[in-house]
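ugh ok fine here u go
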Amino acid sequence: MIKIELIILLSCFVFFGKNAYSQIENDSIARDIIKESIIDKSFHNYLNFNKPIIRDSVTAVSVVEPILFGIYGKEIILRQKPYSIFHIDNYWVISGSLPNGSLGGVFLIIIDEKDSKAIRITHGK
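structure:
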Protein backbone atom coordinates (compact mmCIF):
# COMPACT_ATOMS: atom_id res chain seq x y z
CA MET A 1 0.00 0.00 0.00
CA ILE A 2 2.83 2.42 0.80
CA LYS A 3 4.40 1.77 -2.65
CA ILE A 4 1.17 2.74 -4.40
CA GLU A 5 0.85 5.96 -2.35
CA LEU A 6 4.47 6.83 -3.07
CA ILE A 7 3.99 6.26 -6.80
CA ILE A 8 0.86 8.44 -6.82
CA LEU A 9 2.65 11.16 -4.84
CA LEU A 10 5.65 11.15 -7.20
CA SER A 11 3.37 11.16 -10.25
CA CYS A 12 1.50 14.19 -8.92
CA PHE A 13 4.78 15.96 -8.19
CA VAL A 14 6.08 15.39 -11.73
CA PHE A 15 2.74 16.31 -13.36
CA PHE A 16 2.06 19.45 -11.34
CA GLY A 17 5.70 20.52 -11.44
CA LYS A 18 5.67 20.65 -15.24
CA ASN A 19 2.31 22.42 -15.41
CA ALA A 20 3.43 25.05 -12.92
CA TYR A 21 6.21 26.09 -15.32
CA SER A 22 8.77 25.73 -12.58
CA GLN A 23 11.33 24.86 -15.24
CA ILE A 24 11.06 25.11 -18.99
CA GLU A 25 13.08 22.24 -20.36
CA ASN A 26 13.21 23.11 -24.06
CA ASP A 27 12.05 25.60 -26.65
CA SER A 28 9.14 23.38 -27.65
CA ILE A 29 7.61 23.77 -24.20
CA ALA A 30 8.34 27.50 -24.29
CA ARG A 31 6.56 27.76 -27.66
CA ASP A 32 3.53 25.92 -26.23
CA ILE A 33 3.42 28.32 -23.28
CA ILE A 34 3.54 31.30 -25.65
CA LYS A 35 0.67 29.90 -27.75
CA GLU A 36 -1.37 29.15 -24.62
CA SER A 37 -0.75 32.66 -23.29
CA ILE A 38 -1.80 34.32 -26.55
CA ILE A 39 -4.99 32.28 -26.81
CA ASP A 40 -6.06 32.71 -23.17
CA LYS A 41 -4.51 35.82 -21.60
CA SER A 42 -6.14 35.09 -18.24
CA PHE A 43 -4.64 31.61 -17.81
CA HIS A 44 -2.27 31.80 -14.81
CA ASN A 45 -1.52 35.42 -15.61
CA TYR A 46 -1.10 38.31 -13.18
CA LEU A 47 -1.81 40.76 -16.00
CA ASN A 48 -5.45 41.65 -16.19
CA PHE A 49 -4.94 45.00 -17.96
CA ASN A 50 -7.09 46.77 -15.37
CA LYS A 51 -4.38 47.11 -12.72
CA PRO A 52 -1.02 48.72 -13.40
CA ILE A 53 2.11 46.62 -13.05
CA ILE A 54 4.33 49.73 -13.10
CA ARG A 55 3.11 51.64 -10.08
CA ASP A 56 5.93 54.06 -9.36
CA SER A 57 8.67 56.06 -11.04
CA VAL A 58 11.49 53.86 -9.67
CA THR A 59 9.98 50.80 -11.35
CA ALA A 60 9.33 52.77 -14.55
CA VAL A 61 12.99 53.81 -14.75
CA SER A 62 14.16 50.26 -14.02
CA VAL A 63 12.05 49.05 -16.95
CA VAL A 64 13.12 51.67 -19.49
CA GLU A 65 16.83 52.01 -18.73
CA PRO A 66 17.87 48.57 -20.09
CA ILE A 67 15.85 49.26 -23.24
CA LEU A 68 17.46 52.66 -23.72
CA PHE A 69 20.94 51.33 -22.89
CA GLY A 70 20.54 48.71 -25.59
CA ILE A 71 19.46 51.24 -28.20
CA TYR A 72 21.56 54.32 -27.44
CA GLY A 73 24.30 53.09 -25.09
CA LYS A 74 24.49 53.18 -21.31
CA GLU A 75 26.91 56.12 -21.10
CA ILE A 76 24.79 58.34 -23.35
CA ILE A 77 21.61 57.67 -21.36
CA LEU A 78 23.20 58.03 -17.92
CA ARG A 79 24.66 61.43 -18.95
CA GLN A 80 21.04 62.60 -19.39
CA LYS A 81 20.21 62.37 -15.69
CA PRO A 82 18.26 63.65 -13.91
CA TYR A 83 15.38 62.23 -15.91
CA SER A 84 12.07 64.01 -16.25
CA ILE A 85 9.35 61.56 -15.25
CA PHE A 86 5.62 62.08 -15.61
CA HIS A 87 2.71 59.76 -14.93
CA ILE A 88 -0.17 60.79 -17.16
CA ASP A 89 -3.33 58.71 -17.41
CA ASN A 90 -2.01 55.15 -17.89
CA TYR A 91 1.41 56.12 -19.21
CA TRP A 92 4.88 56.87 -17.93
CA VAL A 93 6.62 59.57 -19.95
CA ILE A 94 10.36 59.63 -19.26
CA SER A 95 12.91 61.86 -20.92
CA GLY A 96 16.51 62.80 -20.41
CA SER A 97 17.87 66.23 -19.58
CA LEU A 98 20.97 68.20 -20.46
CA PRO A 99 22.62 71.05 -18.59
CA ASN A 100 21.57 74.54 -19.74
CA GLY A 101 23.50 75.64 -22.77
CA SER A 102 24.43 72.08 -23.82
CA LEU A 103 24.14 71.02 -27.43
CA GLY A 104 22.41 67.82 -28.39
CA GLY A 105 19.16 66.05 -27.80
CA VAL A 106 17.69 63.75 -25.20
CA PHE A 107 15.76 60.51 -25.22
CA LEU A 108 12.01 60.24 -24.80
CA ILE A 109 10.24 57.01 -23.99
CA ILE A 110 6.57 56.41 -23.21
CA ILE A 111 5.43 53.12 -21.68
CA ASP A 112 2.04 51.77 -20.70
CA GLU A 113 1.72 51.21 -16.94
CA LYS A 114 -0.54 48.18 -17.42
CA ASP A 115 1.70 46.01 -19.58
CA SER A 116 5.00 47.96 -19.83
CA LYS A 117 4.74 48.18 -23.62
CA ALA A 118 6.71 51.03 -25.14
CA ILE A 119 4.50 53.17 -27.35
CA ARG A 120 7.24 55.63 -28.33
CA ILE A 121 11.03 55.71 -28.19
CA THR A 122 12.97 58.57 -29.72
CA HIS A 123 16.10 60.64 -29.26
CA GLY A 124 16.61 64.25 -30.32
CA LYS A 125 19.72 65.50 -32.06
